[in-house]
Every structure is written in C-alpha cells, then in structure tokens.
Specification:
Elements lengths: L1 H20 L13 H7 L7 E6 L3 E8 L2 E10 L2 E11 L9 E6 L11 E9 L4 E8 L2 E4 L1 E5 L2 E9 L7 E7 L4 E6 L8
Antiparallel strand pairs: 1-2, 2-3, 3-4, 5-6, 6-10, 7-8, 7-11, 9-10, 11-12
C-alpha cells in the first residue's frame, strides 16, 4: 500500500509543477507585448496602417489589405498589448464613398461587464471632388477626418459609446459645398 501512495504523491507534485510552468502572469522574465508586436500577431503589416489611435488602455488601427478596409482593436494590460478583434468591409467603386462601421467593448470582453463601447465609422473616398464628410448619429453632427494613404483617401470618425444604435447618416460634400452623397445606416442611397 505504501508504494502506490508514494507514486500518487509524486504524480501530484510533478503535475503541480507542470501546471505552474504555464502560468506566465507571475513570471518576472516575461516582457509585455508592445503595440507593434500586437499588430504583427494580428497579421497587420505596419505599411498597410492608414491611421493609428491608442491611449493608455486601448487602441485601434484603420488598415487596408487587398480590396478591404478594416479596423483592428487592441487593449493594454499588465501583460502588454493584445488584439481583441477586428472587422473589415469591401470597397466597391459604384459609389463615391464607402461606409463601414465597427463597435466594440473596451475593457472587459463581456456585455455584462458594463464597459464602455467604442464606435468607428470609416470608408474610402472614391470621388475626387469630395472635400468634406459629415456624420450624424442621434442628435450629434460631426465632421469626419479625411486621411491620405498611398495616394488614396479615406474618412474616419470615432466616438465613445455605442453610436451604432442610433440612425447614422453620412453626407459627403464638394469643396464648394455641394452635397455629392448621402447614406443612411444600411440604406446606402446617394444624392446628386
């Protein structure tokens, strides 16, 4: 009876040591992942990044890959930066402006965590006459940023909160103020 008990105790001790080897939370040798390392883990080439935003706890990048534009979001913890997901959409040439939206939870990755949401509306500006893009959601009306990357233009607007729950209207104007395009939520209708 003594020998089986001895073997069982040895297995439990060795099993506990093996479990402790995988615990990196308390490992002082582990270096936190940088934002650039998190980009690589998310398979985003830095050269494809159109826009990058980050603060102490979270960040996102707007990127172009093949014929898609995407948003990839990241969080920063004691262990460093990590990707928390992404979304992307295809660009079609049949409209003067593409319109894509992405909403995600900052902080905890569970709706019951009562976290704060981040919403980003974005797209590619395909009509060279467009000089301004306005976005309205709920009662708010704001001008989007127009960005240039590799001789193409993109637009982007970011809001804290789940702005996607409101009706979203995107309007594009020429430099002279003429309305060129309007899209309401998923309607994607245009106006001349």
């Amino acid at each position: 009876m003594g020998r089986p008990l001895f073997i069982l105790i040895c297995l439990l001790i060795l099993g506990g040591c093996a479990l402790d080897q995988g615990n990196t939370d308390s490992d002082p040798e582990r270096m936190p992942a940088t934002f650039q390392e998190a980009l690589l883990e998310a398979r985003i080439n830095k050269e494809n990044v159109i826009y990058e935003h980050r603060d102490k706890n979270a960040g996102y990048v707007l990127y172009k890959k093949d014929e898609e534009i995407g948003i990839s979001h990241f969080r920063n913890t004691d262990q460093g930066w990590s990707s928390t997901g992404s979304s992307s959409g295809s660009v079609t040439d049949d409209k003067p402006l593409s319109f894509i939206g992405s909403t995600w939870l900052l902080g905890q990755n569970a709706p019951e965590a009562n976290g704060t949401y981040q919403t980003v509306f974005y797209g590619e500006v395909l009509d060279h006459d467009i000089g301004k893009v306005n976005v309205s959601f709920g009662e708010a009306l704001e001008e989007a940023q127009i960005l240039t990357h590799r001789q193409k233009r993109y637009w982007l607007i970011s809001k804290k909160g789940d702005a996607s729950k409101n009706k979203v209207i995107v309007e594009a104007y020429s430099n002279s103020g003429k309305k060129i395009f309007i899209s309401e939520s998923d309607d994607n209708s245009s106006s001349d």
